[in-house]
Write a structure and sequence with these properties.
alpha+beta, three-stranded antiparallel beta sheet, 3 helices, 13% strand
């Protein structure tokens, strides 16, 4: 299993990302990359069969914008849990399950094998 806690350069646009106060010509909510980078990393559609409004899609946009920080938090969580496991060497099946789940989510987010 690859170690997903290494500090390798991410393949995604580095964070922080933010929800823009601007919309594109299709009324999609824009998710922008780091300040001053001039990068739009995602557009959250506010149209389609369910005719979602920007207000209804805002929670989805916030979740997407938090992705780089969530990924980093998972990396840190794996590190801390690993250090805890080494220190206490008890019955750590629950901690191992949490690490395995976090690694699976990281693999999904980064496109790497878990």
């Amino acid at each position: 299993m690859p170690d997903t806690t290494t500090a390798a350069r991410p393949a995604h646009t580095p964070g922080p990302w933010k929800v823009s106060t601007l919309f594109d010509k299709n009324d999609a909510i824009l998710i922008e990359g780091p300040e001053g980078a001039g990068v739009t990393v995602a557009r959250v559609a506010c149209f389609g069969p369910q005719a979602e409004t920007p207000r209804a899609q805002l929670p989805n946009a916030r979740l997407i914008a938090a992705a780089p920080e969530l990924l980093e938090a998972l990396h840190q969580l794996i590190l801390v849990i690993g250090l805890t496991a080494i220190k206490y060497k008890g019955d750590l099946d629950i901690l191992q399950a949490a690490v395995d789940e976090a690694r699976a989510v990281i693999a999904k987010a980064t496109g790497s094998a878990s």
